[in-house]
Structure formats: C-alpha cells, structure tokens
C-alpha cells in the first residue's frame, strides 16, 4: 500500500522556505501571508511527526530531518516545473526558440535566417543570443548551436563544422608602402585581439600563430586592439583598423563579400567545433528536425563549396 503523501501546498511551502531559509521571503514568493505559510509547514511537520525547522529569533534553520528531505522535495518540484515547461513547448508546435553565441548569431545565423523562414513559413523562429550555456531541460530553449568539445551527455548532437583561426584584414592593407605580403610585414600593423572566449575556452593566440608562421620579428604582446565581442573585432578589421586573428566561420560572410581577406594560407585548427544540440527525447520533433536540417544544409554550403584556401595546422 502506497504511503499517503502530505498536502501539496505544505510541500510547496517547505520547498520555498527551505530554499530561501526565510518564512517571510517564501511567503512573498508564494503570495501568501507568513502566518499562512507557517501553518502549512506546521501541517507538514504534523503529518510527518517530525520537526523540520528550528524557529529562532527573526530567523529559521533546517533541522537534521529538514536537511534530509530538502534535496528530494526540491528536485521533485524542479522535475514538475521541467515537465510542465516541456509540455507547454510541445503544445506550441509552431514556435522554435534557438540559442547561439552573440557573434555567431550576428555574423552567421542572422544574415541567413530569412532562408529558413522562406523554407518553413509556418515556424515562428525566435533567437536567444547569449554566451551563457542554456539548460535545454530547464530553460525555454528548443535547440542550441554550441561551440565546444562535443561532449553533451543526455543530448542529441550533430557536428556541423570545425573552426580555424587565421589573420584577416581589409583588402586595403594589401596595398601601399606597408602592404602585407609576408608574416614579417605584420610588424607594421596593429594586431587585433578577440578576447571573447576568455573564461570560457582556450583558443590560439597571436603568439601561437606567429610562432607557427616563423615570424619571430613580430611582437604579439605589443600594443594593439582588444575586444570582448568577436564581431566587434572583425568589424574593426573590416574598417582597416588592423589585422585580426579571426575565426573563419564567424568571418565567412565578410570574406565572401570581400570586406576581409586572408593574406596567408596558414590556419590554426581550434580544439573546438560547432555542434547543433537538442534533447535526445525531442530530436524527432518536426520543428527541431527542420531547423537542424536547414543549418546542416547551410553549413554544407561553406564546408563543401566555399572552403578557405590553405593548409590547416
């Protein structure tokens, strides 16, 4: 015979109070009075025959029994919220929320998104551009494009393409008295640094590329331009402000349009790639499958027919 569970309102009151360690804050969160919340918790304690909180002067603390049951009750409510979010998302079959990095969104995804809308006019695509890694179970996100090592337990992921880094500059820097013809010529130009990745992952630096190119006369640490947004670093190079060690996927639209050029063949392969990721349980949903197929088709246009020339290291 199954054990009779306590009232749901009492469990909800305990979850909020044990998480916030405050009856007052929990009451405000649940839109009830502190007296009502205290009564609900007393109901739970009476049902269990256990004391869950020590009532102190102007404060409360969990007892040993309270600490014992808190993780399970908290996880139960998190699971319930997760289930309701998933149900709501599946009912909205025409709404698709995609998350991707800000630079990838600005430079690669946004300029192409009209083609997805043209192919699937019935899908309401919404983009969340952020460097914060979204939880596809907890957040209102359906599918993610991630730049990483490809380890996503519990998720379905497909590798889209590898990423490379190479010097990029405006075409005007290949002309004139200080024209860039060899890696040694970089000593006459400002080096632009993309610092977006710092704190998230390790990518090659100017020092790495200059060493691979044998340009020992160029000091990678000399004064240059630093940006904490990748597309801003690329835009500075487009404007002729110097040479950026850019990521080729992000720079692809500017390269294809002739706004940026790669003066050297040498490219450094990063340890990370682009992946499209969704929950394993949702991989066959029509909107998710449609977006994944479209992104893979768009990526194939770069990796198969529009490759940048030159060897990768």
Write the layout of secondary structure elements.
Elements: H1 8-20, H2 23-30, H3 34-48, E1 53-56, E2 59-62, H4 64-91, E3 95-100, H5 102-109, H6 113-119, E4 124-129, E5 143-148, E6 155-168, E7 191-194, H7 206-213, E8 225-227, H8 230-238, E9 243-247, H9 248-256, E10 268-279, H10 286-303
Parallel strand pairs: 3-4, 3-5, 7-8, 7-9
Antiparallel strand pairs: 1-2, 5-10, 6-9, 6-10
Helix pairs in contact: 1-2, 1-3, 1-4, 2-3, 5-9
Largest pleated sheet: 8 strands, mixed
Count of extended strands: 10
Distance between the termini: 66 Å
Protein structure class:
alpha/beta
- H-E string: HHHEEHEHHEEEEHEHEHEH
Biggest sheet strand order reads 4-3-5-10-6-9-7-8
Task: Give the overall pLDDT as a whole number.
Answer: 88
The helix fraction, in percent, is 25-40%
Q: List low-confidence stretches.
A: none
Task: Based on the coordinates given, report the CATH architecture of the largest domain.
Answer: 3-Layer(aba) Sandwich
What proportion strand? 15-25%
Rg, rounded, reads 27 Å
**Can you identify the CATH class of the largest domain?**
Alpha Beta
Looking at the structure, the CATH topology of the largest domain is: D-Maltodextrin-Binding Protein, domain 2
Please name the fourth-level CATH homologous superfamily of the largest domain.
Periplasmic binding protein-like II
* Distinct helical segment count: 10
- What best-fitting shape do the alpha-carbon axes yield? elongated
Overall domain count: 3
């Amino acid at each position: 015979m199954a054990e009779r569970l306590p009232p749901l309102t009492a469990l909800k009151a305990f979850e909020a109070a044990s998480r916030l360690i405050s009856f007052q804050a929990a009451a405000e969160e649940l839109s009830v009075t502190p007296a009502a919340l205290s009564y609900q918790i007393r109901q739970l304690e009476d049902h269990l025959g256990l004391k869950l909180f020590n009532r102190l002067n102007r404060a409360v603390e969990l007892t040993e029994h309270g600490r014992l049951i808190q993780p399970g009750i908290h996880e139960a409510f998190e699971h319930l919220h997760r289930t309701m979010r998933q149900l709501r998302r599946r009912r909205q079959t025409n709404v698709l929320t995609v998350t991707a990095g800000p630079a990838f969104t600005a430079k690669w995804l946004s300029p192409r998104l009209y083609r997805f809308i043209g192919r699937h006019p019935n899908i309401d695509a919404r983009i969340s551009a952020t460097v914060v890694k979204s939880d596809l179970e907890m957040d209102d996100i359906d599918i993610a494009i991630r730049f990483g090592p490809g380890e996503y337990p519990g998720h379905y992921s497909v590798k889209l393409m590898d990423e490379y880094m190479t010097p990029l500059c405006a075409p005007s820097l290949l002309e004139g008295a200080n024209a860039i013809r060899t890696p040694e010529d970089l000593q006459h130009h400002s080096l632009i640094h993309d610092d977006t990745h710092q704190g998230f992952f390790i990518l090659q630096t100017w020092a790495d590329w200059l060493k691979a190119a044998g340009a020992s006369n160029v000091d990678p640490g000399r004064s240059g331009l630093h940006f904490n947004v990748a597309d801003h670093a690329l835009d500075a190079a487009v404007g002729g402000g110097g040479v950026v060690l850019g990521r080729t996927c992000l720079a692809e639209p500017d390269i294809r349009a002739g706004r940026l050029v790669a003066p050297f063949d040498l490219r450094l392969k990063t340890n990370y790639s682009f992946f499209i990721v969704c929950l394993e349980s949702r991989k066959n949903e029509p909107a998710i499958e449609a977006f994944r197929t479209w992104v893979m088709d768009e990526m194939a246009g770069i990796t198969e027919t529009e490759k940048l020339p030159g060897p990768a290291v």
